[in-house]
Amino acid sequence: MIKPQRIGHLIIGVRNLERSKAFYHGVLGLDITLELKEPPMVLFASSSRDHHEIGCLELGENAEAPRPGQIGVHHIAFRMANEQDLIEAYQRLQAAKVPV
């Protein structure tokens, strides 16, 4: 049986890399570890433990939105150091008008 220790990374298809960078780097504070022109992709990490944990692959503004009932990623969760950090993160997301 294969028994992974933890998830290494997740790649997400996005319409616009600049908007994704604004959210993952600007709002969440993840480090940008690599930007690629071809394929258009940005990799993000929350610590130096891994080269990246999340990647955003640009599919273009006309990429179809997921529909209800489709399979795929439903959400991503981040572990915070403590409850106060969680409260502050929630407040920052609210201030940035990110739906939570």
Query: At the fourth CATH level, what is the homologous superfamily?
Result: 2,3-Dihydroxybiphenyl 1,2-Dioxygenase, domain 1
| Alpha-beta classification | alpha+beta
Radius of gyration: 15 Å
Order of helices and strands: EHEEEH
CATH architecture: Roll
Give the helix level as a range of percent.
10-25%
Number of helices: 2
As a percent range, the share of strand residues is 15-25%
Strand count, sense and closure of the main sheet?
4 strands, mixed
Care to describe what's here?
The protein has 100 residues and is of the alpha+beta class. It has one domain: 2,3-Dihydroxybiphenyl 1,2-Dioxygenase, domain 1, CATH 3.10.180.10. It contains 2 helices and 4 strands, in the order βαβββα. It has a 4-stranded mixed beta sheet, covered by helices on one side. The longest helix has 13 residues. 12% of the residues are buried. The model has no long low-confidence stretch (mean pLDDT 91).
